[in-house]
Fold:
Amino acid sequence: MEHVVAAAVIDARGIVTGWSEGARLLTGHAAAEAVGQAVTGLLAEELTRVPGRAWTRPVVVRHRDGRPVTLTVTACPVLGPDGEPCGWTLTAERSAAPEPTLAERAFQQASMSMSVFDPRQRYLRLNEVACKVMGVPEEALLSRHFPDTVQEEEHSLGFDWHLRHVAETGRPIRYESWTGAPSLNREHAWTTEMWPVREPSGEVVGVALASFDSTEQYLARQRLTLLNEAAASIGTTLDMVRTTEEVVDLLVPRFADFVSVDLLDWVLGADEPPPAREGEVVLRRVAHGSAHEGTPEAAVRLGETDVHPPFSPPARALREGRAVRIQAGEPDFMLWLAERNARAPEGSRHRSGVHSVISVPLRARGTTLGVLVGVRIANVDDYEADDAVFAEELASRAAVCIDNARRFARERTTALALQHSLLPRGLPGQAAVEVAHRYLPSGSTAGIGGDWFDVIPLPGSRVALVVGDVVGHGIPSTATMGRLCMAVRTLADVDLPPDELLTHLDDLVTHLAAYDDAGEDVAELGATCLYAVYDPVSRCLTLAAAGHPAPALVLPDGTAQLVRMTPGPPLGVGGLPFEAVELELPEGAVVALYTDGLIEDRDRDIDRATGELCSALTAPAASLDALCDTVLKAVLPEEPGDDVALLLARTRALGADQVATWDIEPDPAHVAAARQAATEQLTAWGLEEAAFVTELVVSELVTNAIRYGAPPIRLRLIRDRSLICEVSDGSSTSPHLRRAHAFDEGGRGLLLVAQLTQRWGSRQTDRGKTIWAEQSLEPE
Structure:
């Protein structure tokens, strides 16, 4: 450095009267600026008492650019005529830098950025790290106002505000920020401590600060925050697609500028995982998203499959079972990017900034489901080892949620298939009622319920209408529903009255609960059921309920109301009776049977819901099927929380021209008259072809009633879709088939009836029993 000596002359008043070129070089002030000014205006520090004789000492002057400059000044007094000093001549040179103290070395060599400002936010000192962060030497910043050294941005304004706050209040501050720096090409996290510097008197004369780069800690907290958010935001539903979308929404843009989730095809179906295969991997795109609207970076559309070659990140991640990172410049990266651009060239310009890719397998419970891919474009940081650890942890949590959704979908599909196989597909033909039905499985996460319905033809042109609901959801409830459905059909075949049938069904549920789990509360495996029998001849509807909602009835005049009945306890409680109700209905009445999912919900008033049901049933409809849709639209909530079964039945009646009845005297001599009466009725109906078989059936059944039964005896013929012959008597003894031996004189009558008719049977009545036989009237 060039050695410069300055000279100056000061009069007795302290005014500069002479200024050399050397003085300009050392202080930056030209002679025209300095001459005529008070010397105190050029000092950075106030001088203590100056002796009247010559002296040499260090003096801190203020450079023209504002920074302090320490000079070694020698002052000689200029004596006047009286021998008294009338001015001073000054010579000055730059002071030799003193040997730094241990404290100064510690300040300069600190691993964090340290600076000292005066109360007006001007730089006084900076250490080496601070200079490196600012990108300029200390001399370029000393005495400069902080806002003049940085761009006017939010983080700079915040830094300046904190400096001023500490200087004004005298209280220290600690804060964190995520900002850039003039010499850094990316933003960093900074933890900054600011504290006041005081004189012994307590006056604040400066602000000192220390900032250290806490980027790693900040990113670690960010990753931990993402994991915590993942626990709350991923898996909110049991829908696989929605779950993968939640993963994408969480990661973009905080972890990646583009994220895709691809699953193996079997995951989206009901198949078991196939054996692992080497080589290319076929995946189906389920979700993707990016920081750009429309996700232009995607090379695969949603729902499409993509074949990944062995070198690609997804294939490697699946093969190696761990996170795979590739960066720009690596051979695999260049191959992968070229393959993406070849598949979707229209998005190549959006991939031009891609510099880092991470691919993580989605594995849950030892099974690989797919792969998660993250791509960084605008984010300048490459994926590092800590990012891979985070991605694997998040992918593990996401995979469990996806697998839960897969298992739920599989169980739901199985339960629904099982339930559909048990519910009637095509209702059997019968003349008693016209029926229409709807079954809506719930979309609830609890799974498919145990709702069911059935229409069972009964002897005598009667029909049984059944609707029930098993407590619980899922495959166990569906299996229990199947048991009850078959049990009701079996008991209906015995032709039990509704209240008696429910009593037997109640015993069955109790036994099922006891056998399934001896420690299970019986009521937990219970069910509700409504069983009704309609006779089109008498137009009588007999019904009984076990904890089930009462049906609604719509009369031909358009009025609707709930059937008044006493519902018994749910099935499985046991020990309580069931009561039957009988109603005589006009032809054309509509009976609506339903499960509680139609009218019950946490946020609904049941009385209001049943009122809506009755109102909807009276709405005009082109058909019974259309009325079903009208009812569901009007009554059902937008998101039902339970399964719904609805069964509508419009009653028909068999007129007097379709039924013939005769009272029979209990004398074998009257058998011939009964045969003759039946033959004449068939002729009147135009059914002469059925006369031979009918005569034989009437003869055998009437003879058996006279021989083995008890009065009163009655013969009835019903002409419906088939020809039904019924013989009633006062005895409760049921007949049964037996094989007669070669030399037996009797025992062949019922066997002949069974062989000549379509079907036959008997049922108990209040006054005895009825034996019936049915012949088909359709041409063979």
Q: What stands out?
A: Residues 518-524, 740-746 have pLDDT under 50 and may be disordered. The CA atoms of residues 621 and 778 lie 33 Å apart. The longest helix spans residues 385-422.
